[in-house]
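Dear support,

We are seeing what looks like truncated structure output for some complexes. This example has two components. We would appreciate it if you could run it in full and send us the complete token output so we can diff it against ours.
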Amino acid sequence: SYELAQPPSVSVSPGQTARITCSADALPNHYAHWYQQKPGQAPVLVMYKDTERPSGIPERFSGSSSGTTVTLTISGVQAEDEADYYCQSDDNSGGYRALFGGGTKLTVL
Amino acid sequence: QITLKESGPTLVKPTQTLTLTCTFSGFSLSTSGVGVAWIRQPPGKALEWLALLYWDGDKRYSPSLKSRLNISKDTSKNQVVLTMTNMDPVDTATYYCAHSLFDSGWDWFDPWGQGTLVTVST
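Here is the complete output from our reference environment:
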């Protein structure tokens, strides 16, 4: 089994680029998905299978994968992007489970 | 448009069994590749996956909670039910259900219900 590691917080100024990482030794062989959660709201899928953006998600959201790290990039950050972001993947070793990272609080300064 | 809504008690006592219902619309749980998942979030903490029910009846559970969980469906009512036995104050959380897509061996959750806060206390 494995765990997904995310930095607790990331801060950027409006208009800058935010990069939120999710790391695990297993990620080279696993897809990751990303969710945005604003205070008091349910999570919303913003990226799936590392780089696929769901319909309705702004183009400033993009995803990438390299080695043991997947990255959610938000270009031209806006105040409305301030939220918690969670990565998620699947673990099929020893039986299936879905797992989430610990979450990253994105603060727009 | 896919929608899901959780319902159930807001307060349960320790040792009691929690029963939550997810009522959904906009999809069929009989469609290949579709599932319904339950995920919870303690106040101020991260998301935790609990269980997943697939279109073909296959069920998956969090290994750490497997002995306490049961997920089932009522296809005619478009509902998925989660039961969790022996509730404890640490189980206090917002419980979400979510539409799941299974593609080439991978699951992701979209969209989610609004969530329901369950408090475990005497």
